[in-house]
Amino acid sequence: MSTEAVERRLDNALWWAKVQSAGPLEVDPDTPAVAGLTRAVSPDGSSVWLVPTLPSGAGHTVLEELGTPPVAVEQPNETARVLAICVTCCWTDRSGPAWPGAIGTLAQVRSVYAGMRGRPEQSSDLTLIIGSLRRLHATHWLLWNEKAGEVRLGPRTITWTPTDLSTLRDLCRHLPDPPPAVLTSPPPATQDPDPLPGPSERPPSPDTALTTPPAPAVADE
Q1: Which residues on adjacent β-strands are paired with residue 143?
Q2: Which domain holds residue 33?
Q3: Where is the composition biased (Pro residues) (predicted)?
Q4: What is the pTM of this model?
Q5: pLDDT at 184
Q6: CB atoms within 10 A of CB 68
Q7: Alpha-carbon span 24 to 162, nearest angstrom
Q8: What is the DSSP string of 175-218?
Q9: Dihedral sign, Cα of residue 12, residue 196, residue 26, residue 94
Q10: Among 3-7, 103-107, 184-188, which range has the highest average pLDDT?
Q11: Is residue 16 part of a domain?
């Protein structure tokens, strides 16, 4: 094996160790492509997220090993419900991919949550919503700015397949429409797609990859 090939494998192994430790990584746009990691470009092009490519067949034990379960295990139904609401608020152009989507607001989430429940907002709702937003932010399904009360879809949503997106489109049609977003700051300008190609090869060991979670369910607790 050539020296260049050895160095490339070592570099890939280092990036995968970082992903195992910290989950999806936000890096500079000029960071080279890494085998087995998909590149998710931020809306303003200032950074790129490296997200594990999802091979078929990897199960929940793999996700637990990496510390990134498909859905946060605490109050899974409530968390999945809030994720579905955020998809409705942030995926405004449903003819295209979900990532990066648009900025949604806590006010929108609360409105759709109350509409989904079919009742006026209750005092306990906000606590449940904030807890779910924090869990989804910690697992990179959402990017939650608690100070501004704003939310975006997280980099892991780039791993959703066309089948997942089709299911989510149908789900969004059945959820209440959110009110218009009132943002604390103007949205970032959208840049051209990442010029670097996505990786075409799998990581050396399929046991170190993530699997795609099913589309979020919204069944009652």
Answers
A1: 152
A2: 3-66+191-208
A3: 177-206
A4: 0.74
A5: 82
A6: 21
A7: 21
A8: SPPPPPP--SSPPPPPPPPPSSPPP-S--S-GGG---PPPPPP-
A9: negative
A10: 103-107
A11: yes
Query: Does 97 lie in the same domain as 13?
Result: no
Omega of the bond prior to 100 within 30 degrees of 0, cis? yes
CA distance linking residue 126 with residue 159, whole number of Å: 29
* 1's tokens: 């094996």
Asked if residue 91 and residue 51 are part of one domain, the reply reads: no
pLDDT of residue 52: 81
43 in Cβ contact with 103 (< 8 Å): no
pLDDT digits (tens, 9 = 90+) for 110-145: 999 999 988 888 889 999 999 999 999 998 999 999
Q: Are 83 and 158 found together in one domain?
A: yes
pLDDT digits (tens, 9 = 90+) for 41-55: 988 889 999 888 765
